[in-house]
């Protein structure tokens, strides 16, 4: 595998004129008559992953992945637009079997129509078709950029924007991935809908998000049950930045039903950081604590496990293992910038289960067998990540993660300590 991987990475690293910014693209805003313009975009990503313990107990596993995305946008005046993005995601075979998001030979990543209505009261937009949906902190609806195939929805989305105020309403289904060519389907077993609003809090140098989501899943899996669930989420977020400081705080409450049980779940997170812009290497110090509730009693007629639905991936570290369910995570980090184009991030995750009676969950919402017992302590994750961005259209990243699993999970669930290595290069155009 290494013999196949290194030449590809070396070839990728020899792209011309690394130090010079790219010239203005001739593929943007191409005029088509008096009112129409056509633009093209895309990206090529090469990624290598290696681990000595897939899913903390699966043994050695590695793969080399390639993702190509090419898009075209047509705008006609101020009122109508359309976007089409096709992709190809390829991967070498894994020792432990292919992951669902590893490979999709050719697919429609996005394909939608925008209808716009500019008024004195703001810009209204109706978007219909296959699209990505990313909202707020991305804790509940975010991009899936780490895996080789990004996340899309067949959805309808209406938005209104006025200055720094924004309101979104949407309903949609995720996409079921298949490995062939243009054979992905709408996943009718899941549905998500909601409202998301953002407004500035100018005196506090902050912004306020308020949201409500609905979520249906006909095949949900928890330590306590499997089956249908219908879940509602209401939440709020306050975030901002001033004088080198930044903050992002969020809380959400969930209710609904799952297999004749009442859902009562919650999550909360607090994130604060400071960037010392006057110091050498501009160090950034940050800390985050996140809590997602777990089930406290498997026989009380309730399900208390928080479900983050479609969170950004990777969520905590580049290994993308931990799901935000029945979890307490403390995450301090330090980032230094030796050069304007180079950053190095050092981070640590201390992890516990929020409830001893509930399981430890791997992404996406997979309860680990045997983990709903013993100590609540899950373990520690340590990550070093280096990112080099020589030009605005070119980025390289390497990361190392060590997962030190608790003695309790080693004993009761058979989990093992894990090393994970990532090398990645991305060219955007």
Walk me through what this model shows.
The structure is a single chain. The strands form 2 sheets. The chain has an 18-stranded antiparallel β-barrel. It is globular and about 70 Å long. It has a single domain (2-18, 35-428), classed as Beta Barrel (Porin), CATH 2.40.160.100. Residues 1-16 have low confidence and may be disordered. The chain has 429 residues and is mainly β. The two termini are 29 Å apart. Helix content is 4%, strand content 58%.
In short:
The chain has two helices and 23 strands.
Spans of at least 5 consecutive residues whose pLDDT stays below 50 are 1-16
CATH architecture classification: Beta Barrel
**CATH class (first level) name:** Mainly Beta
Q: How many whole angstroms does the radius of gyration measure?
A: 22 Å
CATH topology: Porin
Mean pLDDT: 94
Distance between the termini: 29 Å
Instruction: Give the percentage of residues in beta strands.
Output: over 45%
Number of strands: 23
Number of helices: 2
The helix content is under 10%
- Strand count, sense and closure of the main sheet? 18 strands, antiparallel, barrel
Run of helices and strands: HEEEEEEEEEEEEEEEEEEEEEEHE
Q: Report the structural category.
A: mainly beta
| Overall shape | globular
How many domains comprise the coordinates?
1
List its salient traits.
58% strand, two-stranded antiparallel ribbon, 18-stranded antiparallel β-barrel, 4% helix, 429 residues, globular, Porin, 2 helices, mainly beta
């Amino acid at each position: 595998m290494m013999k196949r991987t290194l030449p590809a990475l070396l070839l990728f690293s020899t792209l011309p004129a690394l130090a010079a910014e790219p010239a203005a693209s001739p593929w943007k805003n191409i005029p088509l008559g008096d009112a129409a313009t056509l633009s093209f975009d895309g990206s090529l990503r090469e990624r290598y992953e290696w681990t000595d313990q897939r899913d903390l107990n699966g043994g050695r596993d590695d793969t080399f992945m390639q993702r190509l995305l090419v898009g075209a946008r047509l705008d006609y005046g101020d009122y109508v637009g359309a976007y089409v993005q096709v992709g190809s995601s390829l991967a070498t075979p894994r020792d432990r079997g292919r992951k669902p998001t590893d490979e999709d030979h050719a697919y429609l990543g996005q394909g939608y129509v925008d209808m716009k209505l500019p008024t004195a009261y703001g810009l209204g937009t109706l978007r219909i078709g296959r699209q990505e949906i990313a909202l707020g902190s991305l804790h509940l609806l975010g991009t899936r950029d780490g895996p080789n195939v990004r996340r899309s929805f067949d959805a309808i989305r209406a938005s209104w924007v006025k200055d720094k105020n924004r309101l979104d309403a949407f309903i949609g289904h995720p996409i079921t991935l298949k490995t062939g060519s243009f054979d992905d389907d709408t996943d009718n077993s899941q549905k998500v809908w909601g409202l998301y609003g953002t407004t500035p809090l100018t005196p506090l140098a902050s912004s306020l998000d308020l949201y409500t989501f609905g979520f249906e899943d006909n095949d949900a899996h928890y330590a306590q049950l499997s089956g249908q669930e219908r879940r509602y989420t209401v939440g709020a977020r306050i975030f901002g930045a001033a004088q080198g400081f930044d903050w992002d705080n969020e809380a959400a409450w969930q209710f609904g039903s799952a297999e004749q049980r009442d859902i009562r779940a919650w999550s909360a997170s607090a994130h604060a950081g400071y960037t010392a812009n006057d110091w050498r290497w501009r160090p950034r110090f940050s800390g985050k604590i996140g809590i997602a509730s777990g089930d406290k009693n498997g026989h009380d007629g309730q399900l208390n496990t928080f479900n983050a639905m479609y969170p950004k991936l990777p969520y905590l570290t580049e290994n993308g293992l931990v799901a935000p369910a029945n979890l307490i995570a403390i995450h301090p980090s330090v980032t230094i910038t030796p050069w304007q184009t180079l950053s190095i991030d050092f981070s640590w995750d201390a992890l516990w289960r929020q409830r001893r009676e509930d399981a430890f969950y791997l992404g996406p919402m997979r309860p680990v067998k045997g983990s709903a017992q013993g100590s609540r302590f899950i373990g520690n994750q340590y990550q070093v990540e280096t990112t080099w961005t020589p030009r605005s259209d070119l980025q390289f990243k390497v990361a190392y993660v060590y997962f030190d699993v608790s003695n309790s999970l080693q004993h009761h669930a058979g989990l093992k300590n894990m090393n994970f290595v990532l090398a990645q290069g991305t060219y955007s155009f």
